Structures are given as structure tokens and as C-alpha cells.
Amino acid sequence: METQRSFVMLKPGVLQRRIVGDIISRFEKKGLNLVGIKILTIPPALACAHYAEHSNKDFFQHLVSYITSGPVVAMVFEGEFAVPIIRKICGPTRVDEAPPGTIRGDFSMHTAQNIVHASDSLESAEKEVNLFFKPEEIFSWTDGNSMWF
Description:
Elements: E1 3-10, H1 12-17, H2 20-30, E2 33-40, H3 44-50, H4 60-67, E3 72-80, H5 82-90, H6 103-107, E4 116-118, H7 122-132
Antiparallel strand pairs: 1-3, 1-4, 2-3
């Protein structure tokens, strides 16, 4: 069993549409532990650092503008194989490829206004968790029901 931590960000449209609980419950129902959560408005410098790998792409400025346009919900989940499991729950980034039953397939209409970000690798997860959370803001805990997941 490989316990991992992964970063998830619910983008501004999620708060506006009041579907935060609907999305968080999908990760919890899978058996992942929510070990860090906060609402924040991302400053442009943090947004640029978060999306640095896309800085030379033509959609970079839109990414930065969108996630700085309103509050986001930043989270850290922990569990067995958390990174790939969370990616599957979110579905493909392109909404036209996201099947029903995934977060993007059920809630997103436009790829440019994608409602969720999830780490795509262990390396990205570590970087993103450290960008958005201090160590003392993460609380690992033991789920007494873990044997049922």
C-alpha cells in the first residue's frame, strides 16, 4: 500500500456555483482523507508559480487570470495511490473528453473555465502542497473506517 498526498484546487466557479460540498464528498466517499483545506484568493505571483510549467503557452495568462479572479478552495488529500485516484475522479482536463460520473464530466461546460485542478504526479503534488500549505496546516489522521474502503 502506497500512501500519498495530493493537492486539489477548486477554482473560483465552484464557490460561485455553490457546489464545493458536492465535489469534496466525491473524494471522501472514495476513502481519501482530507488533511488540509483553506479558502484563499491567489495572488498573481503565486498563480504564476503554480502554473510555471505552462508559462510559454498561449493559454497561460488565461489560467492566471481565472484562478486569481475570485476565491479558491485549496486542499490536500491523503490516501493509498491518492494522486492517480484523484485524477480519475476529476476526469480528463478537456471537458469534451470527460465522461459522466467524473467531476469535469458532471460539472464543467468549458475547458477554459475548468473547475478543478489536481496534481498530475507525486512530484507535482509535493511542489503544489508546499506552495499552498505550511507543514503545520496539514493534519494527518487515522480513519477508523479505512478497512471498509
